[in-house]
Amino acid sequence: MALDTSNKREFKVVGTRVQRPDGIDKVTGKAMYGADVTAPGMLIGRILRSPHAHARIVSLDTSAAEALKGVKAVVTTADLSTPEDDYFADIRDNCLAREKVLYDGHAVAAVAATNKHVAKEALKLIKVEYEILSHVTDVDEAMKADAPIVQEGRADESVHEGWSQNVTSHFEFGHGDLEAGFAKADKIVERTFKTAATHQGYIEPHACLASLGTDGRGELWCCTQGQFLVRTKCAEILGIEASQLRVTASEIGGGFGGKTTVFIEPVALALSRKAGRPVKLVMSREEVFRASGPTVSSSIDVKIGMTKDGRITAGQAKLRYQGGAFPNGTVEFGSQAAFAAYDLEAVQTLGWNVMTNRPKEISYRAPGAPMAIYAVESVVDELCQELSLDPLETRLKNAARKGTLSSYGPTFNDIGLVATLEAAKTHPHYSAPLGKNQGRGLSCGFWFNFGGNTCVSLNLNSDGTVGVVEGNPDIGGSRASISMMAAEELGIPYEKVRTVITDTNSLGYNDVTDGSRVTFAVGLATIEAARAAIKIMCSRVAKIWGIDEEAVVWEDGCAKPSGPNAGEFPPMTIAEIAAIADNTGGPIAGHHEVNADGAGVSFGVHIVDTEVDPETGATKILRYTVFQDAGKAVHPDYVEGQMQGGAVQGIGWALNEEYIYGEDGRLQNPGFLDYRIPVASDLPPIDTVILEIPNPGHPYGVRGVGETSIVPPLAAISNAVSRATGVRMTELPMSPPKLLKAMSER
């Protein structure tokens, strides 16, 4: 559905800052989150987890736990089905270990009891005999031929001989003659970078309430980014029909990609089926860290050549991503994103996905892109320093634009990278003076955005108000944005529209809320559903007036004659049409389903000022400005919030956050006291500059904005620290001890 180039109207609702529909419920505690749902006769579930990084399960005896008074069910992997598809089998084996435990915290068994105290005691009575195996948690070590093998036989056909069996897939992108490109360079810089695994840091742990009968009919309430996806996965893992399981998404206390799969839901359903009663299962914070997916950690080699005047002649990146104990595909996105911001004649990216004895990774806001672009943008900045070039002008000289053959294959259409760079260049932040021990860094960022399967119903109520029914949990303000687009298209006030997120039995399939897809795809479907409803209303009015349907037009929330030749009739408002709908043919509704394409790509530029204490190595963020192309900012407050939120999470990733494993392969910091995310006192006000270069694939020009903002911070902050200290850090996070050591060795 293309941009409405023929309709140049001024938006009346879209682009304003209306009140969020869920705000009052959330600040007053009325909103229902995953752990708030209860049911009569409800049992409490708890999960037994492995204390070992890698071990074979020799024996598992649950009899003592089953005999404990108050215990109503105990389940192991034997209570789950055997999916034929490896994708679902891996999810099953991550929910409950089958033959081996593959990481510290891997689930082994679960109990359901009358209260949490009995459940906790029952876990102690489960006897597990382990044969401890060698483990590996570092990606480079895992790739070695003699590394401990996490799982055998999981490599696909893309993996060449000679690698460890832990290497599961390989990707390659690029074009041009690298050798000739590097030969043209006046300066070549080659560096290796490492980034730690980081967690999404959502405040709400995973939680669910499950009720499943032996007849295969069930209900599930959970905090998720996609109830349809949860239904599909749980049905496969439990061996039941998807149509017999109704999944309802609660309000969600943060997701950022981390709630796009299942960890506990199939276990709760299995317990309920066995106990014959509803089961509530809530992860502790320690379980969230040890057993739910963080992002990948990485090891990356980057080589870039540049001429004295700042032209990049060639670029190469080799990316090694570990995604935990199961095969993953994240390195494909990183390989595609690495050089996407540049117009290059010669470029190559190579990527390897690798298994380790860590939790199965899951998406975290633009999965794979932040670490790839951190490495590339760090080398670009180092070249600018070496050649005494302005880092912003150099990026402008090499920036991808409309017509550029991207590093990963497609030719770009309308994109906003040059516009964001030019906005950054003229912004006061870029030329502001700096003090002692202070440095300024910048970085470009890129993300793809997605569309996907989407289904929307729009219903006209008898009083002229409108209800929109959609199937994507609201994790970034989508209810407001969807209501605004419906109101805009119908020509009615925002307050006259209410958008609700429905369960899996009430609407056609909707893909998960991820990939910055919802405002784009659901908005597109909502606009089409509104247009379908408008067509029906115009048809009804035409019959009332006794004229042809083509002679009725829709303007400002009213049906009107298209011109003097159509007749003299007073406009009929949407409320008037709704009031007599039962006499003109019955209910009025618009419906649209689509596998949305044309989401477009998104670019951003971040500028950050840092100050590094030479005595402690502590880094302070002094000033931060985000420039990003939103296509069309439907609700500017939400767009700014996404831009600021991504920047904050990137600040934590760059400076403090990391999964720390001991020599025994166990996670050393499974809590917010030891895994430190940024708090308000760590941050300055984060300024935002929204650019609007319309996306030709959306009728209002909308682009996704939720993920691009986490991509530039890692490099921008690293570049600022380099310029503040004279030290180029090649490992994240740049925690004070690491930075102090690097400065002392300088």
TrEMBL record:
Coiled coil: none annotated. InterPro entries: Ald_Oxase/Xan_DH_a/b, Ald_Oxase/Xan_DH_a/b_sf, Ald_Oxase/xanthine_DH-like, AldOxase/xan_DH_MoCoBD1, AldOxase/xan_DH_MoCoBD2, AldOxase/xan_DH_Mopterin-bd_sf. The keyword Ubl conjugation does not apply. SUPFAM superfamilies: CO dehydrogenase molybdoprotein N-domain-like, Molybdenum cofactor-binding domain. Residues 28-134 form the Aldehyde oxidase/xanthine dehydrogenase a/b hammerhead domain. Keywords: Molybdenum, Oxidoreductase. SMART domains: Ald_Xan_dh_C. Signal peptide: none annotated. This is Xanthine dehydrogenase family protein molybdopterin-binding subunit. It comes from Pseudohalocynthiibacter aestuariivivens.
